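*** Protein under study ***
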Amino acid sequence: MLKIYKHSPDGEYLESGFADPNPLETEKFLIPANATDIEPPQLSKNEVAIFASGAWTVCPDFRGQTFYSKITGVPVIITGFGAVDSDLTELIPGEYTSWSGSAWVFDSAKALASIREKRNSLLSQSDWTQLNDVDMTDTEKVAWKAYRQALRAFPETCAPGNPVWPTKPD
């Protein structure tokens, strides 16, 4: 019996098996397409054996794993074997972080921009409270006015890494 090693059309090792004997030449075997009698190399984690040009090579294999763009922090799921793009990292970004070249670091400018955006949205959502014909008590009007003033000052007074937002009146 002759042990053979099957691979996909693109060369990726799939499985081993045995070649059928050649009915015309009993001392020879029939090796099907996409198979070889050359044993693939031993693999480590995140590696795949590829057969091309009559030999096996070992390629990186991170298929199905999530990496993150160093530019945007957006997750990317790897779909093919081969080296991972140098613009990706396995390190998970945090909120309001930027890539420093070797790690994600807190980016206060990014945090403040996000805080201002949320603040502006909250102010816009509460604009109705300042109209003359709103049916509210004087106490409610004062509470809303104080809340809106706290929102206006918030970007300059909060801790960007851990913002604690003013409490919206009932």
Remarks:
- The helical segments are 108-125, 138-157.
- The chain has three domains: 3-60, 66-105, 108-157.
- Residues 108-157 form one domain.
- The first helix runs from residue 108 to 125.
